[in-house]
Design a protein that fits this description.
alpha+beta; six-stranded antiparallel barrel
């Protein structure tokens, strides 16, 4: 069976989605060592997420995150491995980052994976000028802002 242009485009978009991480600030419950704590999730992608936390998590530690999904009563839940830890005082070349952990998803239900995939597809279809962490809307988007002069 030969591949069609649509098949190739879909495969390319899946590769792009695999690399995409989007802003997704939510309070989440982090489960570890038999206990629970509330932390903030700052961004998310198909393979993982970043959570803000003052105290270090050990690389390779297994944890679970759970949070309410927008528009659903069923919470999102994923088993994760701590892929890396960033201390706020450590320098970064490209951006500033609060103390926290990069989490790699290791286990997630099919419906949760579908919800996450849908969120990333929806985000990627936005105007490219909006697809960034911005402190304000791009100028062309601010025409109805009464404070923009």
């Amino acid at each position: 069976m030969s591949r069609t242009r649509a098949d190739e485009s879909e495969a390319e978009s899946d590769v792009a989605l695999q690399r995409l991480r989007i802003p997704f600030v939510r309070r989440v419950t982090l489960e570890r060592n038999g206990g629970e704590e509330e932390v903030f999730l700052l961004d998310i992608g198909l393979d993982g997420a970043f959570v803000e936390r003052a105290e270090p998590l050990q690389p390779n530690e297994l944890i679970t995150i759970r949070f309410h999904w927008p528009g659903s009563e069923v919470p999102f839940r994923a088993r994760c491995r701590v892929a890396w830890w960033h201390d706020k005082s450590a320098p970064l070349v490209s951006k500033s980052l609060s103390s926290g952990a990069g989490l790699q998803f290791t286990e997630m239900s099919g419906p949760d994976r579908e919800r996450l995939h849908g969120l990333l597809v929806e985000y990627s279809r936005q105007d490219p000028g909006v697809r960034r962490f911005l402190r304000h809307w791009p100028d062309k988007e601010r025409s109805d802002d009464p404070t923009s002069g």
